[in-house]
């Protein structure tokens, strides 16, 4: 199998669907001739033509509204919003139209659209290029939200998202784009580029939405994470010396609650890690779900490790991110709790 980083794996997924499905097309901000600001769509216009991969005006509401109309007509559009922060001007289209279309029309119309966007921090992009808004989308009934942590999953999840009949928000962690990331937050972005991240099969395969992965088996505690934080959590577990089980959620809607319950029921302890700020973050929902379903198994209070409740700090983003030391400290606390 070829070895790919996440950018290459995502490009391969898009190339595969354009080749296999005449109803699939790609448009958005700088995705055509330029190949995307992070090069995810590089070469697709040359291979598949300007009618299948093309640029759109910088109008996020217009991009997503057009995609909804295309989806209702029978196409499967994949749109790129250049940064996840920029989706907010299109929020009404996503909430009031895309998420509700199937229900409002009694199944007569639907919106099989995929909205791709670079997500999270790590490139010193400042407050408007670095946010992690997954909890906002998870709150909207009718939207699915997917966040891969490695190239193999990225390709399989993106193909599954494109083939899904409901709207999918596909968030791509920028810190994972160009090569292996060992979870240490004291490395500047420029030093990551080893570029050989994982073996990724050629052709079509899917990773089902709503299927979590057990990244590391363990008996002492359960760590729940997704995206970049999977790698941070893995480093924190190694530093802690605690035999923790690590679960990569892969998608937060739909959520694989069965895998979570099985793990916490076994370990009796739970640590939740995400990059977004703590208050109102998706970790709060995860904590409530674990408490509701695993109360009699829990040996200690659930711990959350997250970004701080402050505006995104441009100059101090590496201090803002949850790092291995904070994960290790949370694991130590849950072990002391019982």
How would you sum up this structure in a few lines?
The protein is α/β, with parallel strands linked by helices and 338 residues long. It has helices at 6-20, 44-48, 60-73, 91-98, 101-104, 134-138, 151-163, 228-240, 257-267, 282-294, 317-320, 324-336; strands at residues 3-4, 24-28, 53-55, 76-80, 114-119, 144-146, 168-173, 198-199, 213-216, 221-225, 244-248, 251-253, 270-277, 303-307.
Can you put this structure into words, describing what you see?
By secondary structure, the chain is an alpha/beta fold. The protein has two domains: 3-199, Thiamin diphosphate (ThDP)-binding fold, Pyr/PP domains (Rossmann fold); 213-336, Rossmann fold (3-Layer(aba) Sandwich), CATH 3.40.50. Helices cover 35% and strands 18% of the residues. It starts with a strand and ends with a helix.
Q: Please state the second-level CATH architecture of the largest domain.
A: 3-Layer(aba) Sandwich
Indicate the structural class: alpha/beta
Encode the helix/strand succession as letters: EHEHEHEHHEHEHEEEEHEEHEHEHH
Count the helices. How many?
12
Proportion of beta-strand residues: 15-25%
Largest sheet: 7 strands, mixed
Classified in CATH, the superfamily of the largest domain is: Thiamin diphosphate (ThDP)-binding fold, Pyr/PP domains
Cα radius of gyration in angstroms: 19 Å
How are the strands ordered across the major sheet? 3-2-4-5-7-6-12
> Would you report the number of β strands?
14
CATH first level of the largest domain: Alpha Beta
Shape annotation? globular
Report the span from N to C terminus.
46 Å
Helix content: 25-40%
User: Assembly state here?
Assistant: single chain
| Model regions low in confidence, pLDDT < 50 over at least 5 residues | 186-196
For this structure, the CATH topology of the largest domain is Rossmann fold
